[in-house]
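Project standup — Tuesday

K.O.: blocked on the structure for the chain from last sprint. Re-posting the sequence here as requested.
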Amino acid sequence: MYAVIETGGKQYRVELNDTLYVEKLEANEGEEITLDKVLVLGGESLKVGAPYVEGAKVVAEVVKNGKGKKINVFTYRTKKGSKRALGHRQPYTKLLVKAIEG
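H.V.: unblocked you, prediction finished:
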């Protein structure tokens, strides 16, 4: 069985015991969270939501909260002597899918 879920403005296809990295969620490590924005449930039969499948949910455990690799951003204007260097590390939450219900 698989599900397509929506979180953080993105869509993910998940199966049981999958590990996925999503935009940072307000949850601590070890907590179980319920993702109820399920767009599609697949398996023996296919259920497609409009926009979400009613009564369907994905239960996941928060494995880790962290930051991604550093991205260096450099902007400049030619012939003006203007330049700026920035760095960015995107926060993420690592999830382990425990159950798909629906």
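K.O.: great, moving the ticket to review. The chain has a mean pLDDT of 95. The chain has one domain: 2-66+92-101.
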